[in-house]
TrEMBL record:
Keywords: Hydrolase, Manganese, Metal-binding. GO terms for biological process: diaminopimelate biosynthetic process. NCBIfam families: amidohydrolases. Mn(2+) binds at residues 101, 103, 136, 162, 361. Its EC number is 3.5.1.14. PANTHER family: METALLOPEPTIDASE, PUTATIVE (AFU_ORTHOLOGUE AFUA_6G09600)-RELATED (PTHR11014:SF63), PEPTIDASE M20 FAMILY MEMBER (PTHR11014). InterPro entries: Amidohydrolase, Bact_exopeptidase_dim_dom, Peptidase_M20, Peptidase_M20_dimer. CDD domains: M20_Acy1-like. This is N-acyl-L-amino acid amidohydrolase. Pfam families: M20_dimer (PF07687), Peptidase_M20 (PF01546).
Amino acid sequence: MNKLSAELLKDMISWRHHIHQYPEIALDVHETAAFVASSLKSAGLEVHEGIGKTGVVGVLRMGENPERKAIALRADLDAIAIEEENDFEYRSCHANKMHACGHDGHTTMLLGAAHHLAKHGDFKGTVYFVFQPDEEYGTGAISMLKDGLFERFPAQEIYGMHNLPGLELGKIEMRTGGTMASETLFEIKVKGVGGHASSPHRINDPIIPASQIMSSIQAIVSRAVNPLEATVVSITEVLTDGARNVIPSNITIKGDSRTFSNENIAIVEKRMREIVEGTCVAFGMDGEVSTVTEFPVSYNAEEQTEIAERAAKAVVGDKNVITGCIPKSFSEDFAFLAQEVPACYVFIGNGVEGNHGMMLHNPQYDFNDAALEIGASYWCSLVEISLG
């Protein structure tokens, strides 16, 4: 393990508590970004601010030919809009804002790695420390890419990390291939002819075909998708323009689907369109389907996952590294970065008890300070393996 100094570890806990106490959300992470930039400058890094509005990139070069290879390490800066229910000293000072996903820890681990590598790094190449705003609403990675992230900082590979409540402290898990799910939002419109509820024979009731559509959609996963490939299709909203005594003219069905391959994204959309079209034709109505893929599948490349595995084993030992872990059904905008360059995203144990074992986005969750050294050491090990 890259041995972090006791002084640095003490500083990291202080940084994490400060960031936790003053959470900011979305792209409006100005104070957090300024704190990160100041810390990176104090470590002697070249610092670039305001990328994608509030993103920060620190640059560290070492060796005779630092341009030979460059890698990027990414952490997220933002909190989420919920009211914290913890009562410890460093709880959120901002109403309805809380670091309930551990991004305070992610930021601190990457800062700690930057400080350690600036003093003790043993590698040949360039490291870009990427601090991204707005992971939660999914605009941060896109904003930084549109602002020329990889043109200005031409990394050949990128790595990410997330804490995982319920995974024991000291364990790190990863997999090759689809690691975090895509998310596709869908909206279905069924257009009938509404009227008074007392005279259904004089109208064309869209409720009946809409009900059949909702039932049939549930068969997409069980009958159109390979049963060994996890896919979820969820209906989350049903809207009508009816009233107590009015059969509606229109029904809108909304929901989302998640899967781990581009092939299954296409299968779900194709079958959904066929179901809506066929059902509406049978009832003499019009139907429309619109879809938007908010997040693509996040893929871990084989070579980068092998590097991550070696780095993790160097830090926590072979028996504490879980390869081939189950993919996660949540989505992450790291996927957009992974579309640009080969990538690997891993999960670090946050513990199983108390606040540390609470589900992400729970108002009583807290990042585990004991994981800070593990995460920062993993980053340092990864840099020295990839750029060794």
